[in-house]
Amino acid sequence: MYSRKYSRLVIPLCLFLIALAVEFIYINSYSVKFFISPDGLTYSNIAENFLHGKGLINTANFAEGADHIVEELPLTREYVVGPIYPLLLALVYGMFGFKNYEMVVVFQALLSAGSAVIAYKTGELLLGKKYAWIPFGLTLGYPLFASWGMYVLTETTYVFTILLFLYFLALYSKQVKRSQLRTIVLLGAAIGVSNLVRPLLLLFFPVLGIWIFWLKSWHLKTALRDFSLIVIVTILVMSPWWIRNGIKYHHFIPVSNYGSCEFYLGNNPLTITDKYFTFDQSSFDPEVKASIDKQPVLEQEKEYKQLAVTYIVKHPVQFLGRTLAKEINLFWRPVALPEAQGYKMIGYQLDKWYLCLGLAGALLSIFYLKKYSFLLLFTLYYSFVVSMITVVSGARYRLPVMPAIIFFISIAAVIVLRGISKLGSLLGKKMTFRRL
């Protein structure tokens, strides 16, 4: 019994070590050992305050000047962010010292190697052991995963949690005739943890509920039981953060206390749907922005959210059209040279090939809908929600959907390989028949 358990760990461990070696090779290809931005310094500041016993709060603001040097500014706004990444930074700082950004990158390399192993395990469920190496290799080979791992930012951690989420969805899909409680609980926990990194799965529950209902052949009782357990576990995982925010700020903050400004930016008559957002772009109505910015932060958030919602309700057709335009023009657009140079990316040219092959694989997966439907739903959901909320470029905000794209590429590759195998077998039989 113990030898079987040990043998099951050998392959994942070997794959993890291989992936880690690749990650370190990639890190060494850069002339610098890390990149830091205002967002990264905010997370770092929160981690330092936590280790100093002040709690998960930020006590300084940061901005990038015209010379691209990030400077610390007096605190004008306290940002509440998901607690997972600051706690991971605090763990690294506690072990290796404050602001040890090089070790943060090393820690993120460990997460990236773990992500590749999860991709392999998910590939086993979706494609079989014979082809599980394909998503493993594609995950390691996607250069933007490694590029963003060089930044002190949430990207690597979030991709890791998304891969966990997709793995448990695949496992649940395979066990659908007799769902295991452990899988349901772990799926809910994965959603909760992912939301505490970045909250973009918060709106996924309606999609998840309909998917489970369909997967259960429209058996309401069993579908409702599984779905309810997933929601309950997610709430249990996230509730400590909700309680903490309620006590500290006397206001319900599900994950973070900002985002409404970007929501308004993505949903107002002046939004430019083919231009990456900046806070000072002309799509802001100067008079509206000036009047709102005079109010307290919480009031600003409410005002921006209300303006965005009002626009969506009054102009539903325009809202859908603009959201789809943002998806096409920005979210699904391959990384271009200026953007790659701005983010100091290596190997960005592969991005367009991943996208093209992945979308081709998504079309092929429709013929195997029962098995791969969760990948299609997640891809459609994520790209639509991100494009709905704001105006962003594909490089950073598309990263969490790329694991699904990689599985689509793997599906297409397996279909081709199996086709070649069958063709070879048929030709072999013909040759044998002729000899006879």
From TrEMBL:
Residues 82-243 form the Glycosyltransferase RgtA/B/C/D-like domain. GO terms for cellular component: plasma membrane. It is a multi-pass membrane protein. One of its GO terms (biological process) is lipopolysaccharide biosynthetic process. It comes from the Bacteria. GO terms for molecular function: pentosyltransferase activity. The chain crosses the membrane at residues 6-27, 79-98, 104-120, 157-173, 185-215, 227-243, 375-394, 401-421. Keywords: Cell membrane, Glycosyltransferase, Membrane, Transferase, Transmembrane, Transmembrane helix. Its main location: membrane. It is found in: Cell membrane. InterPro entries: LipidA_mod_glycosyltrf_83 (IPR050297), RgtA/B/C-like (IPR038731). This is Glycosyltransferase RgtA/B/C/D-like domain-containing protein. It comes from Desulfosporosinus orientis (strain ATCC 19365 / DSM 765 / NCIMB 8382 / VKM B-1628 / Singapore I) (Desulfotomaculum orientis).
